[in-house]
Structure formats: C-alpha cells, structure tokens
Design a protein that fits this description.
Length: 285
Amino acid sequence: MKTIFLLSVFLMSFINLNAQTNPDIEGDTMLCPDTEGTAYVTNPVFDSYQWYFKYWFLQDEFVPIEGATGSTFTYDWFTYDQALLKVIATIDAQPYESDTLQIDSYAWLPIFTMYELVDGVTFDPETETFILDEGAVFPVSINNPPYDTLIQWYRDGDSIDGATNATYNIRDAGTYWATAAPSFCPASISTTLPMVVTMAVDVPLIDPANANIYPNPATDELNIELPDNTSFKELMILDLAGRIIVQSPIAAGLTKVKVQELNGGIYLLKLKGDLVENTGRFIKK
C-alpha cells in the first residue's frame, strides 16, 4: 500500500513537472509619445520573475531590467520604444523563459496648414504675410488625417468660438494658428506655425520731406528722422484694426522705436502735432 502511494506521488509530480509551461506574456505594444505601457504574465504561477529587454534593431543580448521582478512590468515610451521584452520565471529554482513582446509607438507627420490663394488673397513673400481684400474669405485647413481630434483655431492668442473643424475661413486681420491631435493619441496635441493675415490698405508712405522712415520693412528697430523745423510731437503705431500698439513723444532728429515684439505684417505710423497729422504705413518682417 505504501509503495502504491509513493508511486502515485511520483507520477503526479512527474505529470505536473512535464505539464508546466513557459510564462506567456501580453501587454501594450503600441505607445503614444510620453506615455507608459504594461506587460504582464498571463499564467502567473511562478515563484520569481525577472524581466529583460533589448532593442530589436541591435544585435545586443537581452539585459535584465533593474527592479522588474514582478509578474507585471510597466515601461515608459522614451526608454522602451522599439524594444523587445521577455521574462524568465522560476518554479523551484527551475527557469522558464517567455516569448518576446515587441514594443513600438505611433508615428505621424507634423501638423501643418494648407491653403490656396483664392480671389482677394495675396501673399507677400518678403514679410511672409497674407493680405486680404475687403470682403475676401480665405479658407485654411490642417492635415486631417491624422489631426482629427481636439481641433481648435486661434486668432491673436484667443481661441475662436466654434472653430473646431479641420478647415477655417479667415475673414479678418490677425495671427492665426490651430491645435489638434490624432484620435489614436489624443493627448499628443500639436500646434501649427502661425499665419499672419492683414487687410489690404491704400495708405501712402509718409512724405520724406516731413519724416524719413527706415528701414521699411523693419525687423528689430524703426528709425524716424524728423527735420529741425518739424511740428510733430507724438508718434503712434497702430494695427490695421486701429488699435494703438506704441505711443510716445517725438522731436526733431532721430528717434528709434523698438518693433521686434510686433507680429509680422502691415502697421500704420501716425505722426501728430498741434495742428498737423500725417499717417503712413510700414511693414514688420
């Protein structure tokens, strides 16, 4: 009887040993930028675990991951993108090796703005400014796909109510851009380059006999040189909506005005005295 019992125990142990399978692993194989994924053993019946990784495009050997000794392992996109993961688990000090899990990440084109110059819209390559005639409508779009989620258009730093489609019709002067994300990575919001739009104006340059304005177009600094007998006492820089951007006193001789903070486009320059006033224009690159 004792012999039969011992034989039964031996047979059960033999069957269990031979029935033991290697660890199977599953997990997040596609990651969005700056996110994390988790791999796990689907049959966690082992005594210990050690996770390993290597980059699939290199001939290096797998190396153990420090601290990754559980049945699950959470990994970050920055370190483990394009990596192979595996785990070696043990039962009674006997090692069993899993299959591999290849980690990859989504990749897509940068966001950009698309447009056609329709009637009433021209482009000034010198200032990289779009110029709209009165009443013109300028349709602009972002590349969709992949940017089909959380779309928002902005004008002069403020979100435009209701402008949440891939295409937006510009009708007014301003600096425009859009933000959006692909639906497969909705947290990865990107921003287009800004587009500077001005309205066409018919304002002549200020008569050089009254004031010498240079350089025009200006980049960092606008020089205003007035003759000794000038009657002008104040200068103002206005945008095309009539908002005063710069206002300061002015006198005969050379006055330098910093314009590097202005957005690119066309601006009005107004010179005023007690009984005189003269308005011209200049271009900010």
